[in-house]
């Protein structure tokens, strides 16, 4: 199964463009349009608020999903950690709709919430990679991720697949509601373009080994910073690096640095900045300058049209709603090459299991 790969994580990182294409074709009907089961759409149209429930990387994908659902479908969306929601349930809207995001479909923390929302008889949709999994069987509806088996403990292709499926869902609902943003967004062709651009980015892996040697060899910690979607991807990049490199690593909203975190910056502290937002790139750049002037070793990961001389990693251009599909790839590669440099087991990091079936 591994073919020419040494480990599943790299195989799964490189499968991501193909997964994007698979999702587009699986959700395209005979008339050439993307479509979602009518019953799911009517249930969503009847709801006044979406609650996304997930853990870990799936929760991070949910943060991007919120942006897609609010922009394309104009449905207010909240994203909750399963383990928090279960015991500190927020005040719910009148007609909530629950989306359970789970690669494995077996995560006990999420199931615990689903059991509760089923008791309340609220409609639910599980988006999962494993059809027939517990969360899939127990929810009202299921949408498959079509990512193929994800073997490495550190989740990669499930994250981008979740974003892709959520974007199709958001865009179909948005079109049903005649929302302008959805009507002018050709989700299938934007996803296909993203797949192509992901391929381009993934063929350029030459610099990562040097980059991590330079930035992460002599350190115990590292930071990812960004704003908006870049902040959400920063959280995911930090989690991936923690999981397999064992470095202490955090993702921060870059505007928050000056409210405390910047005290941690010392000579050579590694800071990775994600810069893909049209409305926030200048602010994040200025935050990057602030940490640089305090001695940080920095790496700027920047969308092509915002790039400047000296930026380290340039992301080929995609639709602004899909920048996370691009910016997450360097963070996955940084984690992978760091684990490799440290001689860690890339696919089976210490203390972690692929699916967490206890609360
Ligand atoms: C991170 C990771 C975990 C999972 C989390 C949820 O790389 O693998 O954070 O994302 O345990 O798992 P699923 O998506 O199976 O519910």
UniProtKB/TrEMBL annotation:
Alphabetically, the GO molecular function entries are: carbohydrate derivative binding; glutamine-fructose-6-phosphate transaminase (isomerizing) activity
Q: Where in the cell is it found?
A: Cytoplasm
* One cellular component term from this protein's GO annotations in UniProt: cytosol
Residue ranges occupied by any SIS domain in the UniProt entry: 40-179, 211-349
Q: Which residues of the full protein are shown?
A: 248 to 606 of 606
Please report the name of this protein according to its UniProt entry.
Glutamine--fructose-6-phosphate aminotransferase [isomerizing]
Q: Could you provide one GO biological process annotation from this protein's UniProt record? A: UDP-N-acetylglucosamine metabolic process
Q: What reaction is this protein's catalytic activity? A: D-fructose 6-phosphate + L-glutamine = D-glucosamine 6-phosphate + L-glutamate
Instruction: Kindly state which keywords UniProt assigns to this record, in alphabetical order.
Output: Aminotransferase, Cytoplasm, Glutamine amidotransferase, Repeat, Transferase
* EC number, as in UniProt: 2.6.1.16
């Amino acid at each position: 199964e591994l073919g020419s790969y040494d480990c599943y994580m790299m195989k799964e990182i490189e499968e991501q463009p193909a997964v994007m294409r698979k999702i587009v074709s699986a959700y395209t009907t005979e008339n050439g349009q993307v479509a979602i089961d009518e019953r799911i759409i009517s249930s969503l149209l009847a709801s006044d608020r979406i609650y996304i429930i997930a853990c870990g990387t799936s929760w991070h994908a949910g943060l991007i999903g919120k942006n897609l659902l609010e922009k394309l479908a104009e449905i207010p969306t909240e994203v909750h950690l399963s383990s928090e929601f279960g015991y500190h349930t927020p005040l719910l809207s009148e007609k909530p709709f629950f989306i359970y995001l789970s690669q494995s479909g077996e995560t006990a923390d999420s199931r615990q919430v689903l059991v509760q929302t089923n008791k309340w008889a609220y409609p639910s949709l599980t988006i999962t990679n494993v059809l027939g999994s517990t969360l899939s069987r127990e929810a009202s509806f299921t949408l498959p991720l079509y990512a193929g088996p994800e073997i490495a403990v550190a989740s990669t292709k499930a994250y981008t697949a979740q974003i892709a499926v959520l974007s199709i869902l958001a865009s179909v609902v948005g079109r049903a509601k005649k929302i302008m943003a959805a009507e002018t967004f050709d989700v299938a062709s934007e996803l296909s373009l993203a797949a192509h651009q992901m391929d381009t980015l993934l063929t350029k892996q030459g610099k990562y080994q040097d980059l991590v040697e330079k930035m992460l060899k002599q350190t115990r910690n590292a930071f990812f910073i960004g704003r908006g979607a870049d902040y959400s991807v920063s959280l995911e990049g930090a989690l991936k690096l923690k999981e397999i490199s064992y470095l202490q690593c955090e993702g921060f909203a870059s505007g928050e640095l000056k409210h405390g975190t910047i005290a941690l910056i010392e000579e050579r502290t590694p800071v990775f900045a994600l810069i893909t937002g049209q409305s926030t790139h200048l602010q994040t750049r200025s935050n990057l300058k602030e940490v640089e002037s305090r001695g940080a070793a920095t790496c700027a990961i920047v969308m092509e049209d915002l790039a400047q001389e000296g930026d380290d990693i340039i992301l080929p251009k995609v639709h602004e709603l899909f920048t996370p599909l691009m910016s997450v790839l360097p963070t996955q590669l940084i984690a992978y090459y760091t684990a490799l440099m440290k001689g860690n087991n890339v696919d089976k990091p210490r203390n972690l299991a692929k699916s967490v079936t206890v609360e």
